[in-house]
Description:
The complex is a heterodimer.
Chain A: H1 2-15, E1 20-25, E2 28-31, E3 34-43, E4 49-60, E5 66-70, E6 75-79, E7 83-86, E8 90-100, E9 105-114, E10 121-134, H2 141-149
Parallel strand pairs in A: 2-10
Antiparallel strand pairs in A: 1-3, 3-8, 4-5, 4-7, 4-9, 6-8, 9-10
Chain B: H1 2-26, E1 44-50, E2 53-54, E3 56-60, E4 63-66, E5 70-77, E6 85-91, E7 98-100, E8 103-105, E9 110-114, E10 120-121, E11 142-144, E12 150-162, E13 173-182
Amino acid sequence: MKRILSLLLLQFLFFGLAVSAQTVSPIIVECGKKCRGEFSITNNGLTPLAVSVEARSFSLDILGRATNRPLDPTVDLRLEEGSARISPKSTHTFAYQLKCGTPPCSVALLSSMVVGHTAEGILVRVQLAHTVYVCEKQKDCRKKVRAAAGVTVN
Amino acid sequence: MKAFKKVTFLFAALTLSLFSAAQSQAQTYSNTAAVSMTFTVNSSLTVSASPSDIAFLATDSSHATANGPIDVITSWNFAVISKNVFTVAYFESPAAALTGGTYNIPASDVFASINGGTATACNRADVNVAAGTPGAICQEIFAGIGMAAQGAHEDQILLSLTSLTPFPVANYAGTITISAQAT
């Protein structure tokens, strides 16, 4: 009985301490007008992870901060999967095709992940962005978008 | 005669050993084999947040503090292309950062202190790095501009609740999103 109680206490103590650590790779890609790409999400944790992906268009302030908004109607995004379940210490790759009607287009593919659940208090969700810059020509696309936004830092 | 035989035998043995040495030296020659190696390292961005959930401890009927801070570690391995990364925290809805069924706690009643700094309400609209809803965003956790190609940054967020009126009796739950983006 004592052993069971000890195990329950340990589980109770460590359940909330689960570290929610995830990785996105690559971080940024540059594309021509038609873009086919993929990004990977790695679950660095020890519990399975449910991942959902959503897309946002964004603009930049002069320091390079993104201000997100709903996806522009001129952007045609086809995500092969909108969600996935990733095993512990595993990686999942999300593939996409993106067409930009009126370049340049700046799109953030945001992967959101939650570990566990709570009936009381606050659950911590981690979100990582895979950033896509689309221009007429791939070369220096990010640089052009940033210059057009008046970003003064690299 | 016997001595001559012995000398001849020794000479023959010595000659053979010389040849064998030459032969073993010849064995060191061989065809070269080239093994090509490739190793691709993509840029990556990692965020860890611990713990995965927090509870609030009421200090009085209209104030509560989280049972501990959320440790957020933003780490990166940039390609040459980017050297900026931003980490923010936000709630889904300005009107209901936490919900207890009938009653809600708005984002304006949730305060965040970053690294022991002044706690400010999570109802900002001007920090919008990720998909955050304007009006439900906490102060910026980390703004890494012109960073080294590889690095990590650790921050702590301590949440608290403050209301002008007592919180109605309910079990409140919500989700805070820690979001990171490199631009």
